[in-house]
């Protein structure tokens, strides 16, 4: 099984507060976030692919002694994460987890997505209905609605930042990714590959993380909350 970690973005909303560092190398208990994530997956014998771009040298340095494959998105300033995944498309050949590099998740969440038999699968937090960043609407365990400004009545929870596509679905997923790039949708998120499938009436499954802690780092307060939570519980 593979995991592809997206670590190419600039992180403009937090950049000024962290001296321009890539978000994914911010330390948690003295360990860069991305190193912590990579190490978790290596414990399960995953093949790990990291897509870099912004300040790639610093990201690579933080994991340089780990058995990781590095892919570069040289157009990270003028594209979004769908382009980063396109550069890694040749690795989309078997069961694959795709994850944003600026997301902190507990080992329980990683274990959950590894062992789930659903595919394609996205994770969601149903405790975050009003104060999240990107929302999913779910019926019968599948996506029906999605968006940053989804009406409250259509929200089932906040998207967590990682998904899994099993080998039986990986060809359709990869072909849809290529189709969107061919249509010059360079500004899309990589998740739009899944949302597009849902729009075509294909089943994209959702599981709740069962109140396990996680956080995406968009602002300095997000990072500070992770540090506080980590010191309290981990």
TrEMBL record:
- Cell membrane keyword on record: no
Database matches in InterPro entries: GlmU-like, MobA-like_NTP_Trfase, Nucleotide-diphossugar_trans
Ranges for domain MobA-like NTP transferase: 3-116
Q: Which UniProt keywords apply?
A: Kinase, Nucleotidyltransferase, Transferase
Its domain of life reads: Bacteria
Keyword presence, Manganese: no
Gene3D superfamilies in alphabetical order: Spore Coat Polysaccharide Biosynthesis Protein SpsA, Chain A
Which GO molecular-function terms appear in the entry? kinase activity; nucleotidyltransferase activity
Provide the protein name: Choline kinase
């Amino acid at each position: 099984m593979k995991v592809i970690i997206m670590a190419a973005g600039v992180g403009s909303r937090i950049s000024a507060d962290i001296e321009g560092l890539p978000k994914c190398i911010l330390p948690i208990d003295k360990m860069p976030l991305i190193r912590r994530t990579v190490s978790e997956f290596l414990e399960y014998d995953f093949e790990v692919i990291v897509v870099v771009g912004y300040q790639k040298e610093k990201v690579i340095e933080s994991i340089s002694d780990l058995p990781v494959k590095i892919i570069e998105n040289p157009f990270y300033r003028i594209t979004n994460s769908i382009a980063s995944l396109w550069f890694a498309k040749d690795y989309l050949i078997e069961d694959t987890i795709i994850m944003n590099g600026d997301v902190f998740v507990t080992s329980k969440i990683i274990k959950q997505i590894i062992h789930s038999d659903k595919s394609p699968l996205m994770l969601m937090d149903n405790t975050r209905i009003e104060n999240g960043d990107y929302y999913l609407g779910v019926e019968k365990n599948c996506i029906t609605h999605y968006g940053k400004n989804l009406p409250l009545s259509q929200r089932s929870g906040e998207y967590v930042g990682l998904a899994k596509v099993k080998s039986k679905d990986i060809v359709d997923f990869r072909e849809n990714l290529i189709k969107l790039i061919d249509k010059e949708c360079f500004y899309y998120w990589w998740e739009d590959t899944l949302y597009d499938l849902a729009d075509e009436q294909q089943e994209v499954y959702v599981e709740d993380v069962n109140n396990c802690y996680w956080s995406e780092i968009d602002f300095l307060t997000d990072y500070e909350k992770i540090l506080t939570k980590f010191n309290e519980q981990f």
